[in-house]
Amino acid sequence: MGAVIAIVGRPNVGKSSLFNRLLGRSAALVDDRPGVTRDRAYAVFQEGGREGVLVDTGGLGSPGDDHLSGAISGQALSALEECDLALFVVDAMLGPHPDDQDIAKAIRRLGKPCLLLVNKVDSPEREPEAQEFRKLGFPELLPVSAAHGYGMNALKGALLGHLSPAREATPDSPPRLAVIGRPNAGKSSLVNRLLGESRLVVDARPGTTRDPVDAGITRDGKAYVLVDTAGIRRKGRLSDRLERVSVLRALRALADADVAVLMVDATTGLSDQDAHIAGHAFEGGKPLIILLNKWDTVKDKKGARVAFERDRELKMSFLESSPWFPVSARTGGGLKQLFPTVDRMMAQYSFTAPTSDVNKVIEAAALRHSPPQVGKVRLKFYYATQVSTRPPGFALFANRPKGVHFSYRRFLKNSLKKAFGLDLVPVRLFIRARHEDRHKGGGRNDK
């Protein structure tokens, strides 16, 4: 499971900018479609065949506070306690602050490895400004600029030794299914039903499951791994620190999964928090199956279906393809569809297409719907190719990549999904300038 890297520091020192800078340069799976307004507190970070879970924490302390006492709490404390490495961000422009010293003491008290990042240093000439932070007592200090990218290569090199080897999924690797959802949605009951034994503690009180639990299972001669996780709640409702820790571990398990299985309580309907949880899977590029649990207790089943479809369209419009079906973890009703659906998902998740086939799909799409005009220039596509799997990702090289409207991007992506039968998994489409493919023998830089 990936190493946890916690970005900590005072408010407004550039933690979120650093978070975005690292992911923007390293994450292979990025989708620019609008309308996704969820909290981006964590993401998978990959570099050099190694990976980790990057956690962006809230500021420790607040502007105007004279002391940090009592402020190290909540998600930031949980992230520090669970992390394998702390990235301690300080502000070179403002200089050392008393709260910086208090945060340094907290990191040392927890015994965590730490990289001290002196942010807002955007040139070699300004590097001497970083040296005054040596007094914080950390041997590894790196001057960086999250806003301009200065020092990022050195930072990534320093991170490599702390990251975990990326899990190498092979065709023979059993699919890992992370069972996620709100507390008391029936996650442990589902795993127990599938295993045929009461292997996990089931309790009506929310928060019973603290750590992700792996359970191997074989169905019709095929192996799978079920991962039961703690219920995920909004940060503001995590009053118990142990539960906050369990949430971080659940997100860690999700990052390491192949398929996410979201349990939704049919008796209460689809909530905003269910959509929030689904967003974690979407941002990680995970195929998602939605199980509407406790269906055996729903009296107006037709009305419940209509309400769920309506709410799913409103609250989960960002999802591309997520099958759902009603089930009962208590009785086992409806669960026969689960593993055949997982099998179809995994085949699509690892799908690869020859470059010639990808280009044929894009050419046919452009004939059906001509590329739009971008300013005074007609949008022109040079070629397309598949650049990733798990999930499938395609790159399309064009003369005006920034001018491609979202609706036309969606049309091209849907054309690829339909042509290759990718109806159950997310698909990523990257539209780039041709010069970005020079390392692969691409053409000149068109302006």
Description of the molecule:
The chain has helices at residues 15-26, 74-82, 98-110, 152-160, 187-195, 241-255, 272-283, 301-315, 338-349, 355-368, 406-420; strands at residues 3-9, 42-47, 50-56, 85-91, 114-119, 141-143, 164-165, 176-181, 213-219, 222-228, 259-265, 288-293, 324-326, 373-374, 377-378, 381-388, 393-398, 428-433. 39% of the residues are buried. Helix 2 crosses helix 6 (241-255) and helix 10 (355-368) packs across helix 11 (406-420). The protein starts with a strand and ends in a 14-residue tail after the last strand. Strands 1, 2, 3, 4, 5, 6 and 7 form a seven-stranded mixed β-sheet that branches. The longest helix is centred in the middle third of the chain and has 15 residues, at 241-255. The model is unreliable at 25-40, 62-73, 200-211, 231-243 and 438-447 (pLDDT under 50). The chain folds into three domains: 3-165, Rossmann fold; 176-349, P-loop containing nucleotide triphosphate hydrolases (Rossmann fold, 3-Layer(aba) Sandwich); 355-440, GMP Synthetase, Chain A, domain 3 (2-Layer Sandwich). It has eleven helices and 18 strands. It is of the alpha/beta class and 447 residues long.
